[in-house]
Amino acid sequence: MLDFLWSLGSFVVALGILVAVHEWGHFWVARRCGVKVERFSIGFGKALWRRTDKLGTEYVIAAIPLGGYVKMLDERVDDVPEQDLPHAFNRQHVLKRIAIIAAGPLTNFIFAIFALFVMYLIGVQTIKPMLGDIKPDSIASQAGLVQGSIIKKIGERDTIDWQAVNLELISYIGNDSLPITVSLPNSPVEQTRLLDLSTWQFNPEKDSAIDSLGLSVYRPDVLSIVGLVAEKSAAQQLGLRVGDKIQQVDGTTMLNWEQIVSYVAKRPNADVVITVLRDDRVVELNGMLGSRQDGDKEIGYLGVSPTLAAWPKGVLFTHQYGPIDAVVQASDKTWRLMTLSIEMLGKLITGDVSVKNLSGPISIAQGAGMSASSGLVYFLSFLALISVNLGIINLLPIPVLDGGHLLYYFIELLRGRPVPDSVQEIGFKIGGLLLLLFMSIAIINDITRL
């Protein structure tokens, strides 16, 4: 329940920020173009807070935090007093109307750059894409990739960390091959391997693009040395200490941490004898294991965490830049997110990407909760990703979206007169149905994943 409330709260905060940014873009440009803005609302429904400025604009925070809007003076919506007609949206030159509508998505892209800029200024800890175990007979193994190599490039794009690798792998969905450049273990030598994607089966609901190719992320070895003892746990009652190396449990030699976990899990509330190496002395500890629920099953529980071996030098690093480089990196990352979003939409149309991959508000809420739990820099990265997607989706030439309005205005610009109201009305109805269809599919996908 606590996780649900945290995800919901994070979702509301994220959506509130992104909607405010998007609508502020429309609002700011509308004001600069001389259009009177009657209301700036974050959310729908009953107003929880409102304030009116000296220009007559009402600012509202409403009860349903699932969007927002800017209400401009418009003869097509309400009767407009004659003295206010020059400030009506519909009376503006078509280029001004284009600027006002385009400002929303454009502000989303600018905000993404800003969020990533702040993230890079603060610095985000990450790891270089060093390969762990390569799955036998996989696409990666057939291409000759080996454990310990570091992925330098996918195609022509540099891959500084695993997030970059994942983004670039996804961009190759539907392609026949994938060029990947790696530096060999303990060597500066780089080689380019060509992965044959003709048999690539990638199901995002079951695994990641990395796993589906037979790759894995390198992780330091888990040592059988106690790194943490939980308060009031069975381990504490037994007398285990940080730094103890577990050698035997009930006389059975423990070869690795996984064996310890497996042995303990099968013995809830059982008496045990744990033999450890402590300060070069062998110590025997006697006591009882604890237990916890794992679904409908009760399993044994000790209450310790292991120590990890050290990372190879330089693999773990902080992705941080000064102000100028942060702007450059943030702009490049935003551009890549934009182009990748467009590529994915194209693959969705061609069928290379299934509609099952569409995500709705539940998935977004889960992502918001997880990123917020991880810290500010990860939440900023999440905001940038969603902001870019919001901007791209709003630019789709579907009536009822900003892109649909822009389509009508560009047609008006070319033909010299507006698209007939009857045609616009039909377009809005079709656009509304399409949007409802896509949202329904996304929500059904979310529920299925749950």
What does this protein look like?
- This protein has 450 residues and is α+β, with helices and mostly antiparallel strands.
- 44% of the residues lie in helices and 24% in strands.
- The protein is built from 12 helices and 16 strands.
- The chain has helices spanning 2-32, 94-122, 139-142, 162-171, 209-212, 234-238, 257-265, 323-350, 361-374, 376-394, 402-415, 421-449; strands at residues 37-52, 58-72, 124-127, 150-154, 157-158, 177-183, 190-196, 222-229, 245-249, 252-253, 271-278, 281-288, 290-294, 297-301, 304-308, 316-319.
- It has a 4-stranded antiparallel beta sheet.
- Strand 11 (271-278) and strand 12 (281-288) form a beta hairpin.
- Helix 1 (2-32) packs across helix 2 (94-122) and helix 4 (162-171) packs parallel to helix 8 (323-350).
- The model has no long low-confidence stretch (mean pLDDT 88).
Structure keywords:
4-stranded antiparallel sheet, alpha+beta, 12 helices, elongated, single chain, 16 strands, 450 residues
What is the 3D shape?
A: elongated
In total, the number of strands is 16
| Poorly predicted tracts of residues | none
Task: Note the quaternary state here.
Answer: single chain
Class by alpha and beta content? alpha+beta
- Mean pLDDT equals 88
Largest sheet: 4 strands, antiparallel
Sketch the topology as an H/E string, one letter per element.
HEEHEHEEHEEHEHEEHEEEEEEHHHHH
In which range does the helix fraction lie?
A: 40-55%
Distinct helical segment count:
12
Strand order of the largest sheet: 5-4-6-7
Q: Termini, distance in Å?
A: 15 Å
For the CA atoms, what is the radius of gyration? 28 Å
Residues in β-strands, percent: 15-25%
